[in-house]
Amino acid sequence: MKLLTYKYKNKECVGVLSADEKVVCPIDAIDLSYATMNELIENITLLERKKLVALSEKMKVLF
Which pLDDT score is estimated for 58? Predict the structure, then answer.
């Protein structure tokens, strides 16, 4: 799993990169509301991390 920040409509967003590194999905797609990467790193729970890993793996199948 790789996390990244990106700009979308002039707003900085946090996302997860698909396992095949072709798709970026915003973390709010799985109801995570961290506004910055630093906030995510400082506060992410083990369950949230597992959800992000699962999302990253699932995206390579969906796209």
Answer: 85
